[in-house]
Amino acid sequence: MRSTYTTERPGFVWVAPALLFFGLFGLGPVLIVLYLSLTDWSGLGAPEWVGLDNWVRLGEDEQVRSSLGITLFLTLLCWATQTPMALAFGSWAAGTQKSRAVVSSIFFLPLLLSTAAIALLWKAILEPHYGLPGQIGPLFGFNGNVLGDSTLALYAIAFIVLWQFLPFHMLLYQAAARQVPRSLYEAAELDGASPFQRFLRITVPQLRHTIIASSVLMIVGSMTYFETVLLLTNGGPGNATRILPLYMYTQGFVSFEMGYASAIAVVLVVLGTGLSLLVVRVTGYSRMTSQREGI
Amino acid sequence: MAPNVKDRPVLRRRRRSGGRPSYWSGLGAAFWLVIVAIPLYFLVATSLRGSGDYMSEGPLAIPDNLTFDNYLNVFEVGFLRFLGNSLIVALGAVGLVLLVAVPAAFGIVRSRSRVVATTFSLFLLGLAVPAQAVIIPVYLLITRMNLYDTLIAVILPTAAFSLPISILVLTSSLRDVPGSLYEAMALDGATNRQVFLRLVLPLSRPGVMTVAIFVGLNAWNNFIFPLVLTQSESTRVLPLGLWAFQTQYGTDVPGLMAAVVLSSLPILALYLFGRRQLLGGLAAGFGK
Fold first, then answer.
1. Which of A109, A112, A171 is closest, CB to CB, to B287?
2. How far is C-alpha B45 from the geometric centre of its chain's CA atoms?
3. How much is the pTM?
4. Chain region(s) in chain B for CATH 1.10.3720.10
5. Which CATH number is B78-282 given?
6. How far apart are CA B206 and CA B208, in angstroms?
7. A192, A217, A262 ranked by CB distance to B9: nearest
8. Could you report the predicted ipTM of this complex, rounded to two decimals?
């Protein structure tokens, strides 16, 4: 009877196009890359089955080990610099003072530039002869070639990543810090807590969900450092900045060893997804139910 | 003693609410302001310098002779075509995402089917898959579909990898719609299609806005998919155009900086006219 029919519910058909599309270009490739890692493929013709050859080679490849080390170091360095700064600046920018609004709108400006634009801008700034270090460096007895120095190049990349992504994470923390109830701060003030204590005891614990979300984004996003590295140093000097995604790209699209590159890609997928899940697990994200505990 | 103890917190609070800035955070903010401002100043100043002046003047000197020649030159090396390509990719990706993600979000929020719930967790899982790591299979798919070196080749994977976050944002915005509204429409005998068109579409506008900005910016800035899926000048997007400019005219730093400025102007305009929406779109779904 039509009259007893209360609410018609939408079925699978509403979700199907999105799922099909994402399955084809999003989840499908994860499976295909696993298959390709067991083949020899130059990018043309059909992939040829070679079993575990690529994986054996991967285990013996010194470059993979060193690239993996550089990748993890860079990811950790970027996380350790971005998180405290984004947390501090984000909660600072959450204040409603006019001056803070003006200053943070300038902080957000790097968000308007693409990764390519930022990499090329910094490459020009770090140009050994006419760039900043080239002009200032000689005063301190430094030749000014930051990107040509195997230690400095990696730190320079971490700094540029910080410059590029700090505003994004700051934005996340700013939005979250604005949701922290004022009453908590007022109570702490009545108890005589200093601004720093209030930050440490109220802001940080209240923002733990954001800290997790931001950390996961940084880990998954560390793959995008690939573009910065490609444009700035292309892995050099020597192999000093050859992070694993860049090594995969070079193997696949420069040497056309797509099968071997796929094996590296599988490592990247496992690494990216694994690290993110680890962060979520270790910090107990799934166990937390209320962000407003104790109120 | 007693009155003193009582007074102190009150005094502190008054100073605080008067907006007394914390010195350390103020100092830190000023420091970072300089770090942000210097490169941006360098960018604009250099783009207005003559190529000869670039070598003779210091990197941070105020340009002696302002010139717009660099900007004119950028237009001569195909900037407008790259701009057009980037626009097509961004609009295409946004359109494609909204076309499939809005109905999917409606389905996920309203359906009681277990299959649909599983689909949602698949999308959540997709959040953790890094696009960079799967460029090789995407390349395989695109070449097999005979789409290599077309703008559609860039649009398809860009849109696909934006789907998980888009669906997350849209579902959370649709969950705020009170169930009584759906029931009221159902009592009037409305079909799913009518509910979708007359209720869901109008009410999901804020979410759609956020998704459109997020996806559009991602597509606009995307580098890796165009890098591996296109090659000719006619399909070149802006970020690749910048790179090509740098490889071809490596020594012309003022020209390159002018190209960087020009490539960022559309987003700068967005920032100036819709700062709130732009920042909201950037932080899509994570700012909670």
1. A171
2. 26
3. 0.87
4. 78-282
5. 1.10.3720.10
6. 5
7. A192
8. 0.87
